[in-house]
Amino acid sequence: MFKQLIDPLDNLTLTCFVAMVPVVTLLVMLAVFRFPAWLATIFGSIITFCLALWVWKMPFDDGAHAYLYGAATGVWNRPRQSDCQWKSRKSAARDALTPHRSEGV
Question: Which of 4, 6, 27, 47 is 20 to 30 Å from 85 at the Cα level?
Answer without folding.
Answer: 27
